[in-house]
Write a structure and sequence with these properties.
The structure holds three protein chains of three kinds.
Chain A (H helix, E strand, L loop, with lengths): L1 H42 L8 H7 L1 H9 L7 H5 L3 H6 L12 H9 L21 H4 L5
Chain B lengths: L2 H26 L18 H24 L10 H22 L19 H31 L4 H10 L7 H28 L11 H28 L5 H30 L5 H12 L2 H21 L1 H4 L2 H26 L4 E2 L2 E2 L7 H24 L7
Antiparallel strand pairs in B: 1-2
Chain C lengths: L2 H11 L3 H8 L9 E6 L8 H10 L10 E9 L8 E7 L16 E8 L7 H5 L5 E3 L5 E3 L9 H5 L6 E3 L4 E3 L5 H4 L6 H5 L5 E5 L6 H8 L15 E4 L8
Parallel strand pairs in C: 1-10
Antiparallel strand pairs in C: 1-9, 2-3, 2-4, 5-6, 7-8
Helix pairs in contact in C: 1-2
The chains are: A mainly alpha, B mainly alpha, C alpha+beta.
Chain lengths: 140, 396, 244
């Protein structure tokens, strides 16, 4: 019986210590390594929104107008949307806003809803049938 | 092998196959694209996790009940030691398989164990202790069966081959080794199950956040373990045409009665404390979810069928002294325990709001249910196979 | 062998390794410590942030999961508070429910944009079994999608519901403060497209940055302070007892 007890305890100790030390010692360096690797992967992800600083480089005049007007807190891509393609190709297509889209686009913010605290309109009462840009210049 | 046995094998293999297909479909969606029901549309831990909890906890319960006879001198329970251990072994294997196939990236499952672990995570410790438990349990079972395997080696056929394979290493006094390892295994099993409970209690979810949850898990482990061993022994005796182990059932009846009474008390106080007006709003909401949307699950299945009715059946001498009465109440207890696990895992998460979305009621996908049934069938089949290949017969 | 190295050696052999490690290694000196400020009063519910985030980070557009989302609260305030009625509206897909007047049932209305709080004591980092979640030295919590096994424990552990399972990649996903943008000096996508300046982002160690100025001047609060998660996302004008 004594032999069995010694064997059992030794067996348990070996299994416990082996597994614990294996798991803990091996895992420490490998997880630091994969952490660094993932940070690099995350950094390399593609950017879609170019940011206002990029827009400013070419469209400085528009930028000045925008900053002096009521829409100074609104960045370019809030309305013109993703600028990735435009920055590379320098074409107008991807960021152009058509006149008939202006109704939807402006009402995203300027529709009267209970929680909206900025200047809002009720579409059925305000200049029916006209595009917003006919009267309002969006960059001002 | 008679006709009934062949039917049993065919049917269970078919169910296992369907279950395997549904698991495969859930992970890769090769046949039909299904809605990603595991995202914000529902809750992250679902039926398979509940099933894993049931399996893992029951395996510990089996070990605790077996160790009463093996280690703590309850002589009458020694007769079920071998069956109980093999059942626990099959159960924990299927349980670990369930959780291994439940995670989204099945191929990366080994990360949780090997070389990429986070020691501050209780899930890591749970997996760790269950693996240790599995190691000790398999060695203990081997030691315990060693003498019988030596006899079986002379039988001839497949059984003899298995026995010869398992007795390649020669040992003496194997029963003593089994006893020592049994003690170590019991300690590991209790630690593992309480870690599983602690895994739930460290979250912010109010139905789970409870320092006594680990103890509750061990307690319910005894309930489900005792009930499972009754079912297993009754069915094997029934099919083998034996009727010798009446006293075992009487001892198990006492174990069941005591543990059910404590469980009722525990459940009642847990919920009363959480629902008491002085508890936080979220805590009361969590209990309200259980009592209103899941009222049938909780009151009917978990409480009435799972605890009260079997307790009545066991206490009344008319039914409690008959083997059939104990068997039926064990079936009821297991039904209740299954619902207890589902309620625990699923309802506990209902106060969560992923991306701001409220989850009020969770319906399980048919594939989930199919795969869950597949795992149960796998367990039954595995236990049957163990009976076929290992010397688990009763010494008459 | 130095004494400190010796302590470390012993530490790796015991379970207490993470604790001792935390005590022996000194706080790394960083040049940046990011913070995010949300001004609840400025949010108008245009939903630009939600859509822009999904575009920038490839989150499925039509599923109700989002790295950042906006919650609208419509409240009928009464005394005592038990008679107060709260109606919650959530925008986490491209469809904007705030534009529909019928969704706003009561008189008092406000919007709360939400995102991952990048907690200093992050529950998701603590519970991840494979160390797929970690803090960068700037304080941002990232998910290593090459390691994540998809056990979903982090989703369960997050008190803010900010992390979710990405059904396309089959790993968990959450806001990273647009880590690929901020390391290049750009603002996060949601901050970039916010038309009213309700969201602002910056470095707390930089005395000139906008968040430093705001947090120095104004009263701020955080979501669920009782959880003790120490968030990096601060709210201005938040009605804490009404917001979930």
């Amino acid at each position: 019986m004594k032999k069995a007890v010694i064997f059992g305890l030794a067996f348990a100790a070996i299994v416990y210590i082996a597994l614990l030390s294996y798991v803990l010692i091996i895992s420490m360096p490998s997880k630091e390594e994969s952490k660094e690797k993932w940070i690099e992967t995350e950094k390399e992800k593609e950017i879609s929104f170019a940011g206002m600083d990029v827009c400013r480089e070419c469209h400085f005049e528009t930028y000045k107008v925008l900053m002096s007007g009521n829409h100074s807190t609104v960045s370019c891509e809030a309305c013109h949307w993703v600028g990735k393609e435009h920055v590379i190709k320098k074409d107008a297509e991807s960021v152009k806003i058509k006149r008939n889209e202006s109704w939807d686009l402006c009402l995203k913010c300027h529709l009267k809803t209970p929680a909206n605290k900025i200047k809002t309109i009720i579409p059925s009462e305000h200049a029916k049938g006209l595009y917003c840009v006919v009267c309002h210049e969006p960059h001002k | 092998m008679n006709g009934k046995e062949i039917t049993f094998i065919v049917v269970s293999l078919l169910i296992i196959f369907i279950g395997a297909l549904s698991i495969y479909q859930m992970h890769t969606q090769p046949i039909l694209p299904i809605e990603p029901y595991e995202t914000a549309l529902g809750i992250p831990w679902r039926l398979l996790v509940a099933q894993y909890v049931f399996f893992a906890v029951s395996a510990t319960g089996l070990c605790i009940v077996v160790s009463l006879g093996e280690l703590f001198g309850v002589k009458k329970l020694e007769k079920i030691a071998k069956e109980g251990l093999v059942m626990a072994l099959v159960m924990i294997l299927i349980g670990l398989m369930t959780i291994g196939l439940e995670i989204e990236q099945v191929m990366r499952g080994s990360y949780a164990m090997l070389g990429h672990t986070n020691p501050s995570s209780l899930m890591f410790w749970m997996i760790m202790f269950y693996v240790l438990y599995l190691i000790f349990l398999s060695f203990e079972t081997w030691f315990l069966l060693y003498d019988d395997l030596l006899i079986q080696a002379n039988e001839g056929g497949l059984r003899s081959f298995v026995a010869k394979l398992l007795t390649l290493i020669k040992i003496e006094n194997s029963k003593e080794y089994a006893k020592v390892l049994g003690m170590i295994k019991l300690v590991t099993a209790v630690i593992a199950t309480s870690t599983l409970g602690a895994l739930f209690s460290v979250t912010h979810l109010k139905l789970w956040h409870d320092p006594l949850l680990p103890i509750y898990f061990i307690l319910t482990a005894i309930v489900s373990g005792a009930a499972l061993i009754v079912i297993g022994v009754y069915l094997t005796d029934y099919f083998k045409g034996l009727n010798e182990r009446h006293e075992v059932f009487q001892t198990l009846r006492h174990v069941l009665v005591v543990s059910i009474i404590v469980t009722i008390l525990f459940t009642a106080w847990k919920l009363i404390i959480k629902a008491y007006p002085n508890s936080t709003l979220l805590s009361r909401m969590a209990v309200y979810n259980l009592m209103s949307d899941y009222a049938i699950n909780f009151w009917v299945f978990e409480f009435l069928i799972g605890l009260i009715l079997p307790l009545m059946l066991l206490i009344l001498p008319k039914t409690g002294q008959k083997i059939e009465g104990i068997f039926v109440s064990s079936l009821l207890v297991i039904t209740g325990m299954v619902f207890c696990r589902i309620d625990h895992v699923v309802v506990g998460q209902l106060t969560m709001k992923i991306s701001g979305i409220d989850v009020t009621f969770v319906s399980f996908h048919p594939l989930e249910i199919l795969s869950s049934i597949g795992f149960v069938a796998l367990f039954v089949f595995g236990y049957y196979l163990a009976h076929k290949l290992l010397p688990l017969g009763v010494e008459v | 062998m130095k004494r400190r190295d010796f302590i470390k050696l012993i530490a790796t052999l015991t379970i207490s390794a993470p604790i001792v490690k935390a005590l022996t290694t000194q706080e790394q000196e960083t040049d940046k410590s990011y913070a995010f400020v949300v001004d609840v009063n400025k949010c108008i519910g245009c939903g630009n942030c939600v859509i822009a985030c999904k575009v920038e980070n490839d989150v499925p557009m039509d599923l109700p999961i989002a790295r950042t989302w906006v919650e609208g609260y419509s409240i009928d305030e009464n005394v005592p508070l038990s008679k107060t009625k709260v109606q919650k509206i959530v925008m986490n897909t491209a469809k904007n429910p705030f534009l529909d007047k019928k969704n706003w049932r009561y008189s008092k209305n406000f919007l709360v944009p939400k995102l991952c709080n990048h907690c200093a004591n992050a529950p998701c980092v603590n519970v991840c079994p494979v160390y797929a979640r970690f803090h960068t030295k700037e304080g941002v919590v990232l998910v290593d999608k090459n390691t994540c096994i998809g056990c979903k424990y982090c989703i369960v552990a997050c008190p803010y519901g900010a992390t979710f399972l990405n059904p396309e990649e089959k790993v968990t996903d959450k806001c990273t403060f647009c880590f690929h943008r901020i390391t290049k000096g750009l603002k996060p996508a949601c901050v970039e497209v916010c038309p009213t300046g309700a969201r602002s982002f910056g470095d707390l160690n930089d005395k000139e940055s906008i968040v430093y100025k705001i947090l120095k001047e104004k009263e701020f609060s955080v979501l669920k302070p009782e959880e003790g998660t120490l968030p990096r996302v601060f709210y201005l004008g938040l009605e804490e007892y009404l917001v979930e």
